[in-house]
Design brief:
This protein has 291 residues and is α/β, with parallel strands linked by helices. The chain contains 11 helices and 11 strands. It is elongated and about 80 Å long. The two termini are 45 Å apart.
């Protein structure tokens, strides 16, 4: 059955029997037999052929959806059994939201690779909602997000805290003030992350908590662009201290001294709901929780 599902998925994705046969290194008649056997097992026609193209029937769409999941799980099962008998190693697919992924994760990965060179990380950066969705769909093994969101299909665990502060250019008029109130910020241009970002969510919560309604908001899709824009004097922002270490050391940005700040938020580990983890994942979890 596993081979039949593999052949079926390949035919669907290649949209052609001969192309699928070439990819699978088997003959086209063999591909046809596998498909026929699967249709007999399902007691349904799964594919329609027309003008050398292949299209799924409604039944075929159902089988394709679950076949992908079954094959993915089968592959993970093999990886876990093999992993059990070996040293930590292999590919580790990690997804992280921007602040953690761009400013903290690289140092952790470098440390892991020093001790476990057989582990090969693959890193995807996205906003919080994108990372959670990729864990749900099993495109990545583990995700790290800023803050918390509700999703019953994944497991979430807070493992570290982040500090957020209001920052301005070192040349900004407010940079020299010993203490700043929110009345000083009413007319400032605020540069914020896009919707769906964990930093955007906590920024909006900060606005609401302090009854701050900015007259002008500029929305950028990257923390790096926001930092450059603030440094250039385009506006002010609310950023993680993890993201601005270098700029503070070089005195390019200034953290405003505001009562009640910094504001803290959690970094959260997002995983699939399973009792089994590879040794590479365990090494990774131990490393991030130690930071």
């Amino acid at each position: 059955m596993n081979q039949e599902l593999h052949v079926f998925v390949t035919v669907v994705e290649k949209a052609n029997f001969s192309h699928a046969a070439h990819a699978l290194h088997i003959t086209q008649p063999a591909v046809s037999r596998y498909i026929k056997n699967l249709e007999n097992t399902m007691n349904a026609k799964l594919l329609e052929r027309s003008n050398k193209m292949v299209q799924m029937t409604k039944a075929g769409e159902i089988v394709y959806h679950y076949a992908k999941e079954i094959l993915n799980l089968y592959g993970k099962m093999n990886v876990l059994v093999t992993d059990l008998m070996s040293e930590p190693g292999g590919k580790l697919n990690i997804g992280a939201s921007y602040t953690y992924g761009e400013y903290i994760l690289p140092h952790i990965i470098a440390s892991i690779r020093t001790d476990f060179p057989q582990i090969t990380p693959s890193i995807v950066i996205g906003n919080t909602r994108e990372i959670v969705q990729q864990v749900r769909s099993r495109d990545i093994d583990v995700g790290i997000i800023e803050g918390m969101i509700t999703d019953e299909h994944v497991v979430m665990e807070r493992f570290s805290m982040d500090n957020l502060v209001v920052v301005v250019s070192a040349e900004h008029d407010l940079a020299g003030k010993e203490s700043v109130s929110f009345s000083d910020l009413d007319e400032e241009i605020w540069i914020v992350r896009e919707q769906g970002s964990g930093t955007r969510e906590v920024t909006e919560q900060m606005f609401a908590d302090h009854k701050l309604i900015p007259e002008t908001i500029m929305e950028f899709g990257s923390t790096q662009i926001i930092k450059e824009s603030v440094e250039a004097g385009l506006g002010i922002s609310f950023l993680s201290t993890s993201a601005i270490r270098k700029e503070l050391e070089l005195e390019r940005l200034k953290v405003l001294d505001i009562p009640g700040f910094p504001i803290r938020r959690p970094f959260t580990l997002v995983t699939q709901d399973t009792a089994f983890r590879t040794k590479a994942m365990e090494v990774f979890f131990k490393a991030i929780k130690a930071t």
